[in-house]
């Protein structure tokens, strides 16, 4: 009798993204095609089917999310490490703590209320800011979360919100803490 280890969805997504990344590592044309996907134009999306589809093995019903996250990875490449922030809310919290404005906070709040059909632009804007500040993003978890975005219980949005506000460092020392309120 053999015991098979069950792979988590995030680990499965990581393996797929690693395979795609290996395939396009030295292919600047493929990387450019993926980056053009971020414009949202259907012709650019169709142009990368040959880059992404061969690795999905039947996950085609989420093709748009896979292509979008793969395009973000091509735009802002990172190691697909297991030790990255837990979700996009953690990454957004890191961005908010690195900036002096309330822009990241406002953009993140708006993102939480965005439907999956309209998420490309606000998510891409935050990723562009994260690239500037070199904030880590867990792309495999992002795919899993986007595939669950429109579920009625909104667990993904709740998880992101908890991560964002739990880990955000205070901007200055003059803000009250839980201990100073007692």
Give keywords:
182 residues; mainly alpha; Peroxidase, domain 1; 2 domains; 10 helices; 60% helix; 0% strand; disordered C terminus
Polypeptide structure, described:
The chain has two domains: 9-75; 88-167, CRISPR-associated protein Cse2 (Peroxidase, domain 1, Orthogonal Bundle). The model is unreliable at 173-182 (pLDDT under 50). It has ten helices and no strands. The longest helix has 16 residues, at 9-24. The protein starts with 8 loop residues before the first helix and ends in a 15-residue tail after the last helix. α1 (9-24) crosses α4 and α2 crosses α5. 28% of the residues are buried. With 182 residues, it is mainly α. It has helices spanning 9-24, 28-36, 42-47, 49-56, 63-75, 88-98, 103-112, 120-133, 139-147, 155-167.
Topology diagram in text:
Blueprint (H helix, E strand, L loop, with lengths): L8 H16 L3 H9 L5 H6 L1 H8 L6 H13 L12 H11 L4 H10 L7 H14 L5 H9 L7 H13 L15
C-alpha Rg (nearest Å): 18 Å
**What number of structural domains do the residues give?**
2
CATH level-two architecture of the largest domain: Orthogonal Bundle
Query: What is the terminal-to-terminal distance?
Result: 59 Å
Provide mean pLDDT, rounded.
86
Tally the helices.
10
Q: What gross morphology would you assign?
A: globular
- The stretches of 5 or more residues where confidence is low (pLDDT under 50) are 173-182
What's the order of the H and E elements? HHHHHHHHHH
CATH homology-level superfamily of the largest domain = CRISPR-associated protein Cse2
Structural class: mainly alpha
Oligomeric form: single chain
């Amino acid at each position: 009798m053999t015991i098979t280890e069950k792979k988590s969805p995030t680990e499965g997504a990581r393996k797929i993204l690693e395979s795609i990344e290996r395939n396009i590592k030295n292919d600047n044309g493929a990387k450019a095609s993926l980056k053009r996907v971020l414009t949202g134009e259907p012709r650019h999306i169709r142009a990368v089917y040959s880059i992404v589809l061969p690795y999905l093995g039947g996950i085609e019903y989420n093709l748009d999310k896979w292509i979008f996250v793969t395009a973000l990875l091509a735009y802002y490449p990172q190691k697909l490490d297991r030790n990255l922030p837990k979700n996009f809310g953690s990454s957004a919290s890191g961005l908010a703590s690195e900036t002096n404005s309330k822009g990241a906070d406002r953009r993140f709040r708006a993102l939480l209320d965005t439907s999956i059909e309209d998420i490309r632009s606000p998510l891409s804007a935050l990723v562009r800011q994260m690239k500037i500040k070199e904030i880590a993003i867990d792309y495999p978890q992002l795919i899993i979360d986007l595939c669950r975005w429109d579920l009625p219980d909104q667990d993904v949005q709740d998880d992101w919100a908890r991560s964002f506000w739990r880990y955000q460092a205070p901007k200055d020392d003059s803000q009250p803490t839980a201990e100073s309120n007692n």
